[in-house]
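Appendix B, record 7
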Amino acid sequence: MSSTHSAVFFGVEIPETLLASEMQNHKSASMKESRQMAGRALAAKTVLLAQGEKMGLIFEQEINEKGLQETKEEALIRAVLSEEVEPDEIDPIAVRRIYDSQPKGFSTAPLLEASHILIAPREDDEASWIAAEEQATELLSLLMKNPKKFFSLARTVSNCPSSSDGGSLGQLRPGDLLANIWDVLLNLDIEEIAPTAVKSKHGWHILKLDHRVDGRRLPFEHVCEHIETTLELRAWTVAAAKYVDRLLTANAGHAPSLAINTEGELDRNSDGAGKIRFVLGDIFNQPQNAVELLDEESRTVIIKKAKSQNVLPQDILGNSVPAFINRADDDAWTKIISCLRDSDNPLTDSLAVIVKHQFPEDKKPGRALNIGAHHVHKPPEGKCHDKCC
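Structure tokens (predicted):
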């Protein structure tokens, strides 16, 4: 029987295919954790879309910073959060406290002047890279003894066009160089040569800091707006997360009634959620018929419970259903939906899930191996049992 398998997260029915695709966006140490993160993200999207429809919001699809237009779902979620989320107000004292707590922060970027000697490999293979590194190491050894040779060596051996200027790279600001090269230069004193060569995709760089102009600390009045904006964004993010948590918690407290389709759109016609309501309602309306549909193991459990409480089996089963609804977790609801979609006897198998969930202590115990009840034959010393050889 072909079907779209689903799982339930926070009371939301999610197709396994969509879940597998979303997991690629949630890298984690384990598949289980990645699956949980993906399920939560998709469930959050679903409850937000449902909330937007419930509120009847009017929204416009905006163009993002990359020039791409929002999808209708993205625009609706943005409208919900804009309407519902109220972050805490920013305390001016907190803004000042952040500025004062970072005496080396909120400064203009430093300005560096630097030179380098680039030793590029002849070919892009391991042997060429090793040879280039060895050459760079030899040059460094020479420069450590005689730093004044930097200019002349840069002009004669460097494989960079800057060799004509003695390796000078000119004035530099953050972003002008690769991060690993910039970090080395930041930690050098003026006229100091880095003790080790730095590797990039171009080759090995011997670095020298020629001059530095440290950044100056900006006045509080120049940065307070930036700090406020950062705090406002953080406060909004926290408030939005709490809002989504409330929606998820509320939705997880009852039988699945929301679903998302394989395209990630809200699906209010999910046969899984619809069948759940139909089946559970049928059990309430015809409890005796439901008892007769139980499999042998489930019927035995229900009859045993009924005898112990001196009530009818249908009463036990009828009371088990609302108890299941109140106590079932996402795994239990996933099993129910799977039965309703994939089973040839959906009602019988769904009832079995409910009975096992409500009466786990009535599962048949596994048969223990009673070694003490048997005599163990010990073969004569030096010989093994004839069945072993």
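Remarks on this record: The longest strand covers residues 203-213. The mean pLDDT is 87.
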